[in-house]
Design goal:
heterodimer; A: 99 residues; mainly alpha; 4 helices; flat; B: 463 residues; 7% strand
Chain lengths: 99, 463
């Protein structure tokens, strides 16, 4: 099978899985969801790393460097801020002490 | 397949699975943190799988980029206050899309300016840089509006939609030409430029209240740009992660549009509220009954069920902690407190939940629209704090109102409605709110934070 077709399969199936999972996320967590998917889609870091590290000349490297920097900002900042938000979502404390 | 390549591919597969499991964690508040740790682990695995690739021959630029990115990303994660979350998210859409766009541009450039780019690869690169470029500038405009560097009202000029659509058509034309003949750097860079301009003109006419939809759409575009990068450089983990992000943004945009009873096209090209019609009854002529903090304290002190309706005004006044304090007082007096969260309350999906969670409100008390609406009948007091359009009865019964058909919170069914409001100005949609003149409505004028503090003090004084 053509490579492009396989890629299309992967894309559509992943989108479908995404749809099934995301529709079950309660609106309570929609902001963390957005920052989480943002951090995850900073996976373009992978492409940026190859660009910055391989031998395609200086222009490609400088572009790669900027891309690595922006993607890393999202990876680090995205996961940290998502965790910071999720930490705040706490259930009500169980009241056990007698009045 | 060399062992090294096998390792990389295995790492990508593991990363993809961890990303999906991580997102699944977000379906349950108590599992969400663990889920996101898995996703972060997945990212680490993907990075390790990449740096061992044979193509990578030097690490200088890589390490510099990783270091600088961490240096900037860390404070963006730890320091940004929760009230600034919408603009924080907008700026991260910008960074994500910028990375994807630059990878696309460099890929085109390093393949002899398109000379060694196949047609299907060109199609992928085209999507990548188009989605990327429009998300870069679109996110920047959204950021500027949310940060109030630009006015948050819609900025429009005559024939704007025509100009925007013409740009889109021109970009699509160049795209088609490039797929037919990839070795065409002028067309490629013109398309990138049009994408950048299109992003600006797409977001300029969108008002502050519509930002939840715009942020969700940009989220989706940033994901699609990542996915297209995966197609262009033949990398499955990029395709998968990008598709997850794209799907998420799309689902959120649909949820948000539905919550405003509007279509995408209407949000993007409607310039909602651009010219608020001169109201037939000027604000000052609406007869409203005001209430003092002391009287509000008495009402709240004897209430058995209080439903708090927070809006963007609460975030602006940074009054979430005062709300929590007030809830504690009500609970001390034997009352029960719930929070009614409209899907578009605030400037991004779920923003109000985060603000209240930050103020230590247990998440069980945060209720969605469908859950809470039947409960207003049995509520003694509905406390509306800085919300306007989401409680405007015109959405139910005035077909001429711009917000007609939007699902709203039925606060008027509560025995008593207390509205905290700075002054008598119409809301974001530029619409007068009849709720304020209802028989059972009392207005508590002033800064939300100061008003709430005064009510809390009065309740404490009463014991």
């Amino acid at each position: 099978m053509e490579l492009e077709l396989v890629q299309l399969y992967v894309f559509i199936l992943a989108g479908f899985v995404g749809f099934l999972v995301i529709t079950r996320v309660p609106s309570l967590l929609h902001t963390p969801l957005m920052s989480a998917t943002n951090a995850i889609s900073a996976i373009s870091l992978v492409g940026s790393l190859v660009l910055a590290g391989s031998d395609h000349g200086l222009v490609a490297r400088v572009l790669g460097f900027i891309a690595v920097t922006s993607a890393t900002i999202n990876v680090v900042g995205g996961f940290v801020i998502t965790d910071r938000m999720l930490e705040m979502f706490r259930p009500a404390p169980r009241k056990r002490e007698p009045k | 397949m060399t062992p090294r390549l096998l390792f990389t591919e295995a790492a990508y597969l593991v990363a993809s699975v961890l990303f999906i499991l991580g997102l699944r964690g977000l379906t349950m508040p108590d599992r969400a943190r663990r889920g996101m740790r898995m996703a972060a682990l997945g990212m680490l695995v993907a990075i390790v799988g990449t740096v061992v690739k044979a193509e990578i021959i030097s690490y200088g630029w890589i390490l510099a980029g990783l270091a600088l990115g961490t240096l900037i990303g860390w404070p963006l994660g730890t320091r940004v206050p929760m009230t600034a979350m919408p603009q924080r998210i907008a700026i991260s859409h910008l960074f994500g899309a910028l990375a994807a766009t630059l990878v696309g541009v460099a890929e085109f450039w390093s393949r002899g300016n398109g000379a060694r780019v196949g047609r299907s690869q060109m199609a992928a690169l085209g999507f990548e840089v188009l989605f990327g470029a429009l998300t870069v500038t679109g996110s920047f405009m959204a950021f500027a509006k949310l940060q109030e560097l630009l006015p948050s009202r819609p900025l429009t000029f005559k024939g704007q939609n025509l100009v925007t659509l013409a740009m889109l058509a021109a970009a699509a034309g160049l795209f088609g030409w490039l797929v037919a003949e990839p070795a065409n750097p002028a067309a490629f860079f013109a398309m990138v430029g049009l994408g950048l301009l299109f992003g600006v003109s797409l977001v300029l006419p969108i008002g502050g209240a519509d930002m939840p939809v715009v942020l969700s759409l940009l989220n989706s575009y940033a994901g699609l740009a990542s996915s297209a990068t995966g197609f262009a450089i033949g990398n499955n983990v990029l395709i998968i992660a990008g598709a997850l992000d794209g799907a998420s943004g799309l689902v959120l945009s649909v949820v948000m549009s539905r919550a405003m009873n509007r279509s995408f096209a209407n949000v993007l090209f409607g310039a909602f509220g651009s010219a608020p019609p001169p109201s037939a009854t000027p604000a000052t002529e609406v007869v409203v009954r005001s209430i003092t903090a002391e009287d509000a304290a008495i009402q709240l002190g004897s209430a058995r069920l209080v439903i708090v309706v927070p809006g963007y005004g609460l975030a602006v006044a940074q009054a979430q902690h005062q709300v929590r304090e007030l809830a504690q007082e009500i609970e001390r007096n034997g009352g029960e407190v719930r929070y009614a969260i409209h899907p578009v309350a605030g400037r991004m999906p779920g923003h109000m939940n985060v603000l209240l969670a930050e103020a230590n409100v247990p998440y069980e008390q945060l209720r969605e629209l469908d859950q809470i609406n039947p409960e207003f009948k049995s509520a003694d007091v509905a406390l509306v704090i800085g919300a306007n359009d989401v409680v405007n009865p015109a959405a139910r019964d005035d077909p001429a109102a711009p917000i007609f058909g939007m699902p709203i919170l039925d606060v008027d069914q509560a025995r008593q409605v207390i509205v905290l409001k700075r002054s008598m100005n119409p809301g974001f949609a530029g619409i007068e709110n009849r709720l304020f003149a209802f028989e059972n409505t009392r207005m508590l004028f002033g800064d939300a934070r100061a008003s709430l503090a005064a009510v809390v003090q009065a309740m404490k004084a009463a014991g």
